[in-house]
Design goal:
Strand content of chain A: 25-35%
CATH superfamily of chain A: Pyruvate-ferredoxin oxidoreductase, PFOR, domain III
Number of strands of chain A: 6
Strand order of the largest sheet of chain A: 2-3-1-4-5-6
Strand content of chain B: 15-25%
Strand order of the largest sheet of chain B: 3-2-4-5-7-6-12
Number of helices of chain B: 13
CATH architecture of the largest domain in chain B: 3-Layer(aba) Sandwich
Number of strands of chain B: 14
Number of helices of chain A: 6
CATH topology of the largest domain in chain B: Rossmann fold
CATH architecture of chain A: 3-Layer(aba) Sandwich
Distance between the termini of chain B: 41 Å
Helix content of chain A: 25-40%
Oligomer: heterodimer
Shape of chain B: globular
Largest interface: A-B, 20 and 25 residues
Order of helices and strands of chain A: EHEEEHEEHHHH
Chain lengths: ~180, ~375
């Protein structure tokens, strides 16, 4: 089990990554850990490269920003180009299939059809964030699954719980193959 | 700490929760990044508590509105950022001379002017004290975590009610916007202070006659039948304007004394590993979190470093800073400006130890490594 993990979720504005970050942090706290979630504001919060940052730790967290992350999610090429240098050399990289990457990199890489799954299997691109959480969960297993699902249900818009749980399960099965 | 009550809360959200717990039932404001959520959440929560929210046309009127709300006996607050805080200064002075309790939250962002709307800065340390003209008292508090925002907002109300002064709560964009694990106190664990009310009849009431023991007059609410005059001019005990030099002298001295003479009850701070420290970092708000990381890492490498974190920024914690200066060799004042609190520390500590600056004004939080490299470099 990890002591501290720093996560950066990146993509474009409107993909729900900040909500995804809030859900992860919320679940971590319900799971008895410490967590901080922060985000970038400003022009880039709409359309451009957007990011949510989460630190989950067993200990107190002082400096609240993510510097080098242990896990990086990129749903767009633009966000990959912008944030790839912030990933630890031994970190985990999760990217949508649309993202072209440097083949020589040392990261443990998962290239998966996240957006396609959201659109074609769950029915809306709006759940790309929750499909991503399913992927992250299956890859890292850092939080209790039931706790994480509870946080999803608690934080997504009313009436969309079933849709989002389906998205989470689809994300998990992307990793399982 | 029971984990049951732990939850994820945003800094601005915690500010509203603290204000409501303290008894805030009136909020007037004009939304501005990075404080907007405070207005937004107040507008959602106040109606259910029989409170009132009003979005004003600007920050001048927002400040005026909370003065009115407080005069009517309702605990009142506004929230803004640098540009709005500048506009509030005149009426903030009015609240000071008319002794009207209220809380002004300034979630700082990069300045001057509209500056860097979404980036953190700590540029209003001096403005919190000297932004309004004239000689006057100031109480300014500066928390560094989401949980502490909740607690300190309650304290801000308590101080404003107790001393009858506008209290400025300075927040950083970093903590105002981030979400963090908090465990909120039950209402039974919270101490609430309410303004001193007159015990005499309306006929006998002299609105600005202060009690000898604390220099603070009792305050009747408008609408209760106690008639009195409120003005921004220098006034006598009845509240009516006067040019009498003796009265003016007595009033200005009393306004400052009621705060400064009670500094021990106003002094809130965190003293972290300063006892044996040769080097002490002084910092507040989000920067103090970086400083604490830096202290821990430097200690792991055998360096005797500590952190002194004032939560009460004004009045200045002279006694504590002086004490540290007599033990430490060097004090570094780390702040997201080019040196504001530094000059307060230098004034107090400069005689006994070296006082140096660590500064950053590019819109990014000072990192632990930046502090570490300055201290290791001995610059």
């Amino acid at each position: 089990m990890f002591q501290k993990i720093e996560i950066r979720l990146s993509g474009s504005g409107g993909q729900g990554l900040i909500l995804g970050g809030i859900i992860l942090a919320d679940a971590a706290i319900d799971d008895g850990l410490n967590a901080i979630q922060s985000q970038s504001y400003g022009p880039e919060a709409r359309g451009g490269a957007s990011k949510a940052e989460i630190i989950i730790s067993k200990e107190d967290i002082y400096y609240p920003k993510v510097m080098k992350c242990d896990l990086l999610l990129c749903l767009t090429q633009k966000s990959y180009d912008k944030y790839i240098d912030s990933l630890n050399k031994s970190g985990i990289l999760i990217i949508d299939e649309c993202v072209e990457i440097d083949k020589n990199a040392s990261y443990k890489t998962y290239k998966l059809p996240i957006i396609d799954t959201a659109v074609n299997e769950v029915g809306t691109p709006m759940v790309a964030n929750i499909v991503s959480l399913g992927v992250i969960h299956e890859v890292c297993k850092m939080l209790n699954e039931e706790v994480l699902k509870n946080s999803i249900v608690k934080r997504v818009p009313r009436g969309t719980a079933d849709l989002n749980i389906k998205a989470f399960e689809k994300g998990k099965s992307l990793v399982k193959g | 700490m029971s984990n049951k009550k732990a939850k994820l809360l945003q800094g601005n959200e915690a500010c509203v929760e603290g204000a409501l717990a303290a008894g805030m039932r009136f909020f007037a404001g004009y939304p501005i990044t990075p404080s907007t959520e405070i207005a937004e959440i107040s507008s959602q929560k106040l109606p259910a508590l029989d409170g009132k929210f009003i979005q004003m046309e600007d920050e001048l009127s927002s400040m005026a509105a909370i003065i009115g709300g407080s005069l009517a006996g309702i605990k009142s607050m506004t929230a803004t950022s640098g540009p709005g805080f500048s506009l509030m200064q005149e009426n903030l002075g009015y609240a000071t001379i008319a002794e009207i309790p209220c809380v002004i939250v300034n979630v700082q962002r990069g300045g001057p002017s509209t500056g860097l709307p979404t980036s953190p800065a700590q540029g209003e340390i001096m403005q919190a004290k000297w932004g309004t003209h004239g000689d006057h008292p100031a109480i300014t508090l500066y928390p560094n975590s989401v949980e502490e925002i909740y607690n300190t907002t309650i304290t801000a109300f308590n101080f404003s009610e107790k001393y009858r002064v506008p209290v400025v709560l300075l927040l950083d964009e970093v903590i105002a916007h981030m979400r963090e694990k908090v465990t909120l106190k039950d209402t039974s664990e919270i101490t609430i202070i309410d303004r001193k009310k007159p015990t005499c009849s309306a006929e006998e009431y002299v609105a600005y006659r202060a009690d000898d023991n604390d220099n603070i007059p009792s305050m009747a609410s408008f609408g209760e039948g106690y008639r009195y005059h409120v003005t921004g001019l220098v006034h006598n005990e009845t509240g009516f304007p006067t040019n009498d030099n003796k009265v003016a002298d007595k009033l200005i001295r009393r306004l400052i004394d009621k705060v400064e003479n009670d500094i021990d009850n106003l002094s809130i701070y965190e003293d972290y590993k300063t006892n044996d420290a040769e080097t002490v970092i002084v910092s507040f708000g989000s920067v103090s979190r970086s400083a604490k990381s830096a202290v821990n890492e430097l200690r792991n490498n055998g360096k005797k470093v500590g952190l002194f974190r004032p939560i009460t920024i004004w009045p200045t914690l002279e006694k504590q800073i002086l004490e540290i200066s007599k033990k430490a060799k060097t004090i570094y004042v780390a702040e997201m400006n080019l040196g504001q609190y530094y000059y307060e520390v230098e004034r107090i500590a400069g005689k006994y130890c070296n006082v140096k600056k660590i500064n950053k004004v590019n819109g990014e939080l000072i990192t632990p490594n930046e502090i570490i490299s300055v201290i290791n470099g001995g610059n």
